[in-house]
């Protein structure tokens, strides 16, 4: 028995770790050690049951989380084993497809298309059809494609070698674009992120032996953040666990923040109904945050009506009250934040990397960055532009992909970068010939490079380079191959002449990441496997190398923790988002409230919420988020000038766009119900009022506030 796997766990965590068989669900609030239990359980199964890691699937929500978990697992069980199945849904699908996609007549070196690749395909289609984005923007069209792909049945059509795609003249344009898109995708054997899940799904549905193999192989399955599973993900996990019936899921319904993207928390909530033998373990001790932070989180999330009540406690040391800073304008807000950061560094010996600045939408990072730059505070943004979607990185990847798959997309990217005098006219020639002769663009160029049309070009040199490395790549490491390709193709020189230092730095960062990756896997890195893995990675997944303040959206911060957290730009219309307010649906507003809860519960020691007056992007006046006022007032320390008049204005604004009030769903605690009808009250936001009615059943006061037409139910605290 390896005791250290259980060391320091509380009783319920220990139960979660040692109950290895059957269906188990762990429900708990933020910071209660769910992920820790999941990690230790993995180690427990390996060490105490002697199960090989290749028989345990452990699904996490982001690459960052899976990298983190691999590290933690390795520290528990040693680094010698293959932890490749500690992965994301997409990572797992790539793994399955590499092994079994041949059943669907696709090669194992299929390529993964990111958003930019998808747009490149659309651009080609638009050109061929002679339409412009005035017809429909690429983003819109991609949304349509994604919604078409909600039903995975199309995979059967796409992968059937005999099926014909109708792209005839008289077809409806949108349908025609869709079919052309599928056709082009197929031609490059490209799978977008939706396809990864859908192909895997169809593979399991239609090929019993494949499903059987994976079901048998996966003795144990664990899923973190299960509350954010979509229908497809839920089905996939259920299929996979059907034979061994060892499925362990952990989650917190209060942290569902992806409903807008198809997450369905009810699968988690009703997990016990789907699996009647399921055992539910509830963790209730928070290890992450001070009692002050925990109280603020709890006080806010209680306002959601669609939730299961949980009681969390902590034995952590008391700390400072959560602070709400109200600035007069953006500069004032960020100035206060940077002063506070400097103070934390000087007075509390905080490292910059202990500090995170979170925000609702990535455009907010602009004013935050400006403030940090002004104060010379190093920072790193996680998220935003995807690292592997930067032009220079895509170019480098395209050179690599051309070696492996020779696909049209990679070809078009680099055939004339650097300039080889293969411009529009010659590309058009290649495209036409390729279509007619059913060849890839690369093979077409190979066939016609001797044609006089290519006399004044460097087509032959280009082909010689690619052919050479097609022969030799297996003998080289990926990093060696990349270095040679960039040097010999002239790309390196082209970047240098271009003189953009940023791009050169990005490319060396990319190079560095390959070397690190090669070292970390300890076995030979295969080029095709690398290319598939890399496409799934984003900026948010990069290693933290520098000591710098971390900037990210709340969505990216999910599952993570930081000693000091600033939640900036907490303006009504941003959080909650104006979209959620315009929808006027309780569910949308509640998701925004959960998002705020996620942000608050990331903090270990200190939590700061800031916002400022001024104009929003839409040109309207900014007011503090209604969520700030929903937090029990005595839990928050207010700093900054929030004048009475502005208060009242905020009230009227919130009131004007409020649809929660009036539904009677703001409950009172019994101990607080000490007011009688006629009692005068003063509310920090709504001002003075008189209790008009008390609904004991609902624990709600109905209060008439001065200057408001209707009576509003409100917490009388
Ligand atoms: P979230 O809902 O935000 O994902 P979580 O429930 O997954 O949170 P963890 O990230 O696993 O929580 O744990 C939160 C913090 O508490 C971590 O720093 C973890 O190491 C620590 N922790 C968890 N359990 C214990 C324990 N029994 N003793 C000491 N520290 C613990
Ligand atoms: Mg977690």
UniProtKB/TrEMBL annotation:
It catalyses: Couples ATP hydrolysis with the unwinding of duplex DNA by translocating in the 3'-5' direction; ATP + H2O = ADP + phosphate + H(+). Its EC number is 5.6.2.4. GO terms for molecular function: 3'-5' DNA helicase activity; ATP binding; DNA binding; hydrolase activity. It holds the Pfam family UvrD-helicase. The keyword tRNA processing does not apply. GO terms for cellular component: cytosol; DNA helicase complex. Keywords: ATP-binding, DNA-binding, Helicase, Hydrolase, Isomerase, Nucleotide-binding. It comes from the Bacteria. This is DNA 3'-5' helicase. The lineage of its organism: Bacteria, Bacillati, Bacillota, Bacilli, Bacillales.
